[in-house]
Amino acid sequence: MTLPSISVVTPSYQHAEFIGATLRSVLDQGYPGLELVVMDGGSSDGTVEILRGFGDRLRWVSERDGGQAAALNTGFARTRGEIVGWLNSDDLYAEGALHAVGEHFRANPDVDWLYGRCPIIDREGRPARELVTRYKEFWMRRYSYRRLLIENFLNQPAIFFRRRFLERVGPIDTRYRNAFDYELFLRMGALSRPAYLDRVLAYFRVHREAKTSATFERTFREEVEAAERVSQGRHPLLIALHRVNRVKLTTAYAVLARLGI
What we know:
By secondary structure, the protein is of the alpha/beta class. The protein has one domain: Spore Coat Polysaccharide Biosynthesis Protein SpsA, Chain A (Alpha-Beta Complex).
């Protein structure tokens, strides 16, 4: 049986510093049946010239859009792969990641979505915030949907899902600017338990210009709102715990920001 086709969508905006390495980390996987689509929001920093340099190895568009969530929905609609993932324009896939993902989906036709490990790296690609990485990996190995309602311990770059499952769950909610990934994963988790690949699939980059680093307070606020909306009042204690956890995370990230970590 052949490996399933995989579509990767990369939303981008003003990330010329990183996007070349990001796209190479996808294309250098050597995965058969790979489709890579870049949805650029009209960058003016040299991103378009970099995209042109990849020739016909990928497809791309550069124009103003309705934000990252809207760009992803459009990108998903323009792809045809059986398996779908997205990689932001400053993150990276680990060597061999797509083969590991494709092989797992092929061997497990009942799996709708999966996640793997995703260490944090800094601007230069060096390990960063290793305590955060270890904390998330602790909960990754002990996945439960109830825990996911309390806090987001999944790393978006290391998550893949079947297209048919995305169609069942519905598109990304464009009301969210930061936590749209978490809201989507909550809806997915309400329908199907994800598989866990105990290996590094991707690397999440932190730097001062990154949305997660620059607006973490909004991220954690939106995550509480997403958990409340998706749970529809069924888990008041878990949502209360999430609110407490929001204070903990906001304080921790504020300390990291002050320390420049």
